[in-house]
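Retro notes
What went well: the complex prediction finally ran end to end.
Inputs used:
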Amino acid sequence: MTHLGYLIAGWGIALGTFAVYALSVVRRGRDLARRVPAERSRWLTAPGADAGNRG
Amino acid sequence: MTETMATNGTTTGSRGSRVLGAATLLGLATLLLFAFGLTEADIRLHPTTGEEIGQFDAVRLLYLHVPLAVFTYVAFVLCAFASAGYLIRRTPWFDTMAHAAAEVGTVFCGLVLVTGSIWGRPVWNTWWEWGDVRLMTTLVLFLMFTGYLALRRATVDPRAAARRGAVVALVAVLDLPLVNRSVEWWENRTLHQKSTLGELKIQDLTLFTLMLGFLVFGLVLAWLLLHRFRVGWLEREDAEHGIAADIAERRAAIDEGDVDAAVGEGT
């Protein structure tokens, strides 16, 4: 296989970056989920339902 | 819908996101199999000299680079729509979505620049070309959305951060048509070729693997967006809950006559 170093670098950097970023997002979510009470852990509300209450 | 999106309270995962995550990992494994095991290298013979030409195995980087570029567009367009939605409706949903799409899109855009540079070295014999319009417009796009993220982080008032961020996103996204059309509008000022997909210049397994790449990186984007949105939502709730708890604590202190605690002395 030609250009093996470039292939490893390209795919490795991309997949590695995604893995690190995904782990950091999951970890941030875990920390926050412990702190926020369950009744406030809503992910989606109808847009406009709480307009004016929050920025 | 709210209930199906809720988690067990300790993570941002849900049944849906776990299924999506498993499909994404399976897709990535399949893509690697096709990209490295089942497709051929790009080797052609020169019509007159008979010499071997083409991208050789470097073509395998395009199964990564091209889908990343397309989903960079998708993420930033989503960010722009959500930003416009925020300016019109002023709801946290739009702002949280815009912020999530900008952050994930910036990761995608950074990887487009890096993988493109790594691909360019063996194929174009250069890591970077300052005169290439597509490279420069993509770099400008990346820098503008990096600025968007920095602006949001630097602004203390969340409403001001949301409003300013939305305006910056709507300005930054104007660069997208320039990135996309640059190879047509300034064809003499770019090393990039015109779209090979539109004219179906690639076929069979190569085309299939590229399509698989689109599917897989679409799943990657969806999974990351879903979790990043939930993190953003929790950050907002955490900030508001922290303030509400603080106020309640100080009210309780006033009721008990503890003025020092109520004004924050000795805490």
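What we learned: Residues 1-6 of chain B have pLDDT under 50 and may be disordered.
What to try next: split runs per interface for comparison.
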